[in-house]
Design brief:
2 copies of one chain form a homodimer. Helix content of chain A is 37%, strand content 24%. By secondary structure, the first copy, chain A, is of the alpha+beta class. Chain A starts with a helix and ends with a strand. The structure holds a DNA duplex.
Chain lengths: 219, 219
DNA sequence: ACAATTCGGTTGTATTTACAACAGAAAGTG
DNA sequence: CACTTTCTGTTGTAAATACAACCGAATTGT
């Protein structure tokens, strides 16, 4: 697990801690490492969670297949991101999504009760981790709200504008790369791929933007 | 502020605390009470928050007016619910929504830094409140995800089915009341009111459900 | 290098939605 | 009780979307 210390140091959860502090937190929190091959399920709908998880290698998608087999990609998890924190409360319902590895991936699991309960050995950095966790989950809430904003747009074009504007703002440039291919982006915005492709090309023809594969430029 | 103790006792944030403990927490956390008339803004887009807020009387809507004046109701806050917690982190961006009183309302504000930092006087219930806050924000995340699920449905009908099914499940009955009128429900699901009304009536004619005003019955 | 597969763009058609406009019912007001 | 305002359902039309089907380009695997 030690080889992931540099990765962990850059996560929100362990922000502000130095190597030695993280090492002691790992044992204090009873961390466990798990690996998955590309395409494997990391979590399945219906599971009950007790662990907060950090992706330390690879890439994951949060997705859901409905009754009729339509797949929605609800989000994407990059290295260093935390997930599962919304489902670890004692009275939480079961997980309602699947989490799938889109590349070979590794995660580290932490029992939430060890995080949230001050440890008997009075580990010094515990309260900092609790604060970090709070701020991290806050930030995720904000992201959910932002995605809701894209989704609440009525037309495909408006959804695209909303998404691309935000991505440009996030990457601080009118030239940027998105983490989705066309089908994934369509799933993320819950629109039809071909209709979206069509709309993107119209927008390009109108001089609003340019793109090549996942690289975009807004005007 | 004391008259709201029974209300606070039933909130997620103060769950598990008795009256005296809540009273001491109120001063420990430096709580403040604010009142608003129906229609007044409680929070405005662009504000930076330091306070976590609990609604102790009335009703609020979280909403957003876009560029072209289209209003989306992103959510609704009932008595006892907490809000603002996603925007209080030190590096959080500004609030991106408005919060408006739909009835005369009262809120109690808590400086988040006092909650999250163990108080010097070692107030006994502090860590319980921190845990409660964590579980509350977790639950809100789950709700956001559920709303995202409704929104990710492609058609008005599917959105309605998704929303109404969940509402029935939530209220544990095929007969239930929704907290929105037609226009508000349409805004919540981001669809056109008349199209939605139309679809509801078609579904009624097909024998899927019955309704009168805000009361629904599913078959 | 070749075959197989994935990916992105295009088109036509059937379906669905948005929008505007209106009318009756319900609720609020003086 | 009139009057006004808000709410809900209805309709027709224009616009947008979903869907299926296809093709060429790019990518992958052997």
């Amino acid at each position: 697990m030690k080889k992931y210390i540099p990765t962990l140091k850059r996560t929100k959860l362990f922000s502000g801690l130095v190597d030695d502090e993280i090492i002691s937190m790992l044992s204090c929190l009873g961390a466990r490492l798990c690996s998955y091959k590309k395409g494997e399920y990391v979590l399945r709908q219906g599971e009950h969670l007790r662990d907060i998880t950090v992706l330390v290698s690879g890439n994951l998608h949060i997705q859901k297949d409905d009754y009729w087999g339509n797949r929605s990609i609800l989000g994407q998890i990059s290295v260093g991101e935390m997930f599962g924190e919304a489902y670890v409360a004692p009275e939480s319902e079961a997980l309602i999504n699947d989490v799938i590895a889109t590349e070979d991936s590794a995660i580290i699991l932490f029992d939430v009760r060890r995080i949230i309960t001050t440890c008997p050995s009075a580990c010094r950095f515990h309260s900092l981790v609790v604060q970090n966790m709070f701020f991290a989950i806050s930030e995720k809430s904000r992201k959910l709200v932002q995605k809701l904003e894209h989704m609440s747009k009525r037309s495909t074009r408006e959804k695209l504008i909303s998404y691309l504007s935000e991505e440009a703002k996030k990457q601080n440039s009118s030239v940027f790369t998105i983490p989705f291919n066309r089908q994934q982006l369509a799933d993320y915005l819950s629109v039809d791929r071909s209709a979206m492709s069509n709309e993107l090309c119209k927008m390009r023809d109108e001089g609003m933007l340019e793109f090549a594969k996942n690289n975009f430029k807004l005007f």
